[in-house]
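Hi V.,

Quick status before I head out on leave. The structure for the redesign project is tokenized and pasted below; the design run finished overnight.
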């Protein structure tokens, strides 16, 4: 059994994909299964913290002791995160939030014609960028799923989004999305750890240990 090294802390985790509807039955989304975020929620609960999990649509059970808030769109995930963040000690943003959404959502199902169809897209709000300027921020951990230049891209996001830590993983060759195992490169200002490939359950426990270590170190600095 894990020690309760996060006892008395409140931790917010975002997980899964978002859905961006363009009519009542059709949406844009991505390959996120939510497995990593749910494994993190379970590991944080094991470590003794109060866990709130803001989740996009996934086919996973809520881990024991975890409070889940279900959302669909990037905007709903943003609103739920902003509503919760003030009382949190740590935020782990594991969700694969859509970067673009259709500019219009039709009220009725769009009928097909013989013509092609072009969807116009607009940017969604970047949740972490919204939080960057908060006066009283929690310890924030972001994720970066990359298909190229993993460390350079992750380091740029760490800086741009004002994060305390970022966990980066490759999404290539069956690794990352949907799989039951993964590997992570964890970066923070001035440091780096490689967590080698293992089950998402084990990986989540290792990452939570690392987060707790730097969270406590920052608090006592
Ligand atoms: O820029 P990119 O989407 O790759 O950054 C990934 C990180 O940013 C993840 O932690 C993800 O949850 C977060 N994110 C966000 N809001 C968005 C898009 C991504 O908070 N709209």
């Amino acid at each position: 059994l894990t020690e309760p090294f996060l006892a008395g802390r409140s931790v917010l985790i975002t997980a899964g994909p978002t859905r961006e509807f363009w009519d009542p039955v059709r949406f844009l989304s991505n390959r996120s299964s939510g497995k990593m975020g749910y494994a993190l929620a379970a590991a944080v609960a094991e470590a003794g913290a109060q866990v709130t999990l803001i989740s996009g649509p996934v086919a996973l059970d809520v881990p024991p002791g975890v409070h889940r808030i279900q959302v669909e769109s990037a905007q709903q995930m943003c609103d739920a995160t902003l509503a919760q963040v003030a009382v949190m000690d740590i935020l782990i943003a594991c969700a694969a939030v859509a970067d673009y959404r259709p500019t219009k959502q039709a009220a009725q199902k769009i009928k097909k014609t013989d013509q092609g169809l072009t969807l116009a897209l607009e940017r969604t709000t970047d949740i972490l960028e919204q939080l960057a300027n908060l006066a009283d921020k929690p310890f924030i951990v972001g994720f970066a799923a990359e298909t190229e230049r993993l460390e350079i891209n992750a380091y740029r996001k760490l800086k741009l989004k004002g994060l305390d830590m970022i966990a980066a993983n490759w999404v290539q060759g069956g690794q990352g999305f949907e799989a039951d195992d993964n590997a992570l490169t964890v970066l923070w200002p001035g440091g780096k750890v490689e967590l080698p490939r293992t089950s998402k359950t084990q990986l989540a426990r290792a990452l939570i240990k690392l987060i707790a270590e730097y969270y406590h170190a920052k608090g006592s600095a």
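Above is the designed sequence. The pocket of cytidine-5'-monophosphate is lined by residues 14, 74, 93, 95, 97, 99, 124, 126-128, 142-144, 157 (CB under 6 Å).

G. will cover questions while I'm gone.

Best,
W.
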